[in-house]
Design brief:
Elements lengths: L8 H17 L4 H28 L12 H26 L3 H18 L5
Helix pairs in contact: 1-2, 1-4, 2-3, 2-4
């Protein structure tokens, strides 16, 4: 199954850009603004990886969609974890104590992702 069939991207982007814009405006420096948007794009990639992992794990056995192997799902999970950890470490180096705003934005993005998943009957 393609990711575009799983998520309503129009709803996802509309509700993702507003909190990220607010977060980026709280940084007050160009570096903070830039780091916020880099973190936003890493968050999107991270969440797309999460969707791929979850939907592959939840596929029924008799599904006509090819299921990924356990190793590829494990590697995707490790890459997802490494990506978000690297983003947090680099962000902490540049913006210090304001990283809490990025973490709050990340949590908001998770709820936004849940809201944007298309319901399948």
């Amino acid at each position: 199954m393609l990711i575009k069939t799983k998520i309503d991207f129009k709803k996802y982007l509309i509700f993702s850009l507003f909190p990220t814009l607010i977060t980026s405006l709280t940084m007050f420096t160009f570096v903070g603004f830039f780091i916020t948007w880099i973190f936003f794009f890493i968050t999107i990639v991270n969440q797309l990886m999460l969707i791929e992992i979850v939907f592959n794990l939840l596929l029924p056995e008799g599904s006509d969609v090819s299921k990924k192997s356990g190793l590829s799902i494990a590697l995707l999970f490790i890459a997802k974890f490494a990506l978000i950890t690297l983003a947090l470490v680099i962000s902490a180096q540049f913006i210090g104590s304001k990283i809490i705003f990025l973490i709050i934005n990340y949590v908001v993005q998770i709820f936004n992702l849940i809201y944007s998943i298309k319901r399948v009957d």
